């Protein structure tokens, strides 16, 4: 919920259809990073369906983190 909540907060902060540069997006990026580390902490050494689910969550976290960083950095490239 931490990662998805921070992803939902990036849309109003970035002014999504017309992005503007703001450093406030660092806060959701750090929250998403903390959620990713929390999911990495849940990894188990042996394979199971739980392990597979955690891997899917980590992939989702990385995708959200890349999108947040895109919203953070894209206005500075224009």
Account of the 3D structure:
The structure is a single chain. This protein has 78 residues and is mainly alpha-helical. It has one domain (2-77). It is built from 3 helices and no strands. α1 (2-14) packs parallel to α3 (49-77) and α2 (26-41) runs antiparallel to α3. The radius of gyration is 14 Å and the shape is elongated.
Short description:
By secondary structure, the chain is mainly α.
General form = elongated
Which regions have little confidence, pLDDT < 50, spanning 5+ residues? none
Number of strands: 0
Structural class given helices, strands, pairing?
mainly alpha
Largest sheet: none
Mean pLDDT figure: 92
- SS field, number of helical segments: 3
Distance between the termini: 32 Å
Q: Secondary-structure element sequence?
A: HHH
Q: What is the total domain count?
A: 1
Rg measurement, Å: 14 Å
Overall helicity: over 70%
Strand content: under 5%
List the helices and strands and how they pair.
Blueprint lengths: L1 H13 L11 H16 L7 H29 L1
Helix pairs in contact: 1-2, 1-3, 2-3
Task: Provide the descriptors you would attach to this structure in a database record.
single chain, 78 residues, mainly alpha, 3 helices, 74% helix, elongated
